[in-house]
Inverse folding.
């Protein structure tokens, strides 16, 4: 029996809680892939389109201070961050698909190298921007976004390190755990915008200030990636807890709720912002 057939047979023989956890994880990855793909396309059209149109100052429409012609290092850093981040959003779900790993291991390895390099570039590019120009939100945003950049850099390095040592006992499982953490971090910039969008729809921007120093802004300095990491840790531990079906069922429920939230958010944001923004650039 081939290795892929053996894994499929093992999957069919798995207890129901383990299968539900795997299915809910697949649903979350699928919803995130669709949403991130649309958002990544919008980002490319919005930011790259502004450069092609000769109006790079449009970068500052949603988050002031991104385009700073007097500080070329910060502009270069954020440009690298956006370019690498767009690739991360598109490649991340591919790296988590077990079928791709089994059928095309070489593709998984090479796209994984590209993914890790882009994650390093995104993390270091964002850090370069913060060091050279600082963020509009001041110290709280500097710390929150700086920690985010450091965590992405760490997760990318650990994912690569354990992949290279995959033949050693336990290292392949560590590689997959770090890859899940990296994916959870990589979708942070996308969730940051969606969280703000929902908050504005629900509260008309309560706690938000134009300089991003409001109480809600300071919460969001960390809330766009810390919950993602916590959810990733729940999934990692539930997947390994074969003797704890309650934990696996609880993890599956959390993943289903997250997938439903992403699906709803994707529909609303694609309808209101992303698709109109793409169409406007094409017009």
């Amino acid at each position: 029996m081939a290795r892929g057939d053996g894994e499929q047979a093992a999957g069919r023989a798995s207890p129901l809680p383990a299968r539900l956890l795997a299915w809910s994880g697949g649903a979350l990855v699928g919803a995130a892939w669709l949403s991130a793909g649309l958002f990544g396309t919008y980002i490319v059209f919005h930011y790259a389109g502004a450069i092609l149109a000769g109006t790079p100052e449009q970068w500052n429409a949603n988050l002031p201070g991104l385009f700073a012609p007097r500080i070329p290092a910060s502009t270069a850093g954020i440009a690298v961050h956006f370019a690498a981040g767009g690739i991360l959003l598109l490649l991340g779900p591919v790296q988590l698909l077990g079928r791709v790993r089994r059928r095309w291991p070489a593709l998984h390895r090479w796209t994984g190298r590209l993914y890790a390099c882009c994650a390093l570039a995104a993390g270091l590019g964002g850090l370069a921007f913060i060091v050279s120009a600082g963020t509009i939100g001041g110290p709280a945003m500097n710390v929150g976004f700086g920690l985010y950049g450091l965590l992405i850099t760490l997760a990318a390095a650990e994912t690569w390190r354990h992949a290279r040592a995959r033949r050693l006992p336990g290292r392949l499982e560590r590689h997959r755990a770090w890859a899940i953490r990296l994916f959870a971090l990589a979708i942070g910039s996308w969730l940051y915008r969606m969280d703000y969008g929902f908050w504005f729809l629900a509260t008309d921007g309560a706690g938000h200030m134009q300089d991003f120093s409001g109480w809600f802004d300071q919460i969001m300095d960390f809330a766009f990636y810390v919950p993602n990491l916590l959810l990733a840790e729940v999934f990692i531990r539930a997947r390994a807890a074969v003797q704890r079906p309650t934990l696996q069922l609880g993890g599956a429920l959390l993943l289903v709720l997250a997938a439903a939230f992403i699906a709803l958010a994707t529909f609303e944001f694609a309808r209101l912002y992303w698709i109109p923004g793409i169409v406007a650039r094409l017009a």
The radius of gyration is 20 Å. The chain has one domain: 32-282.
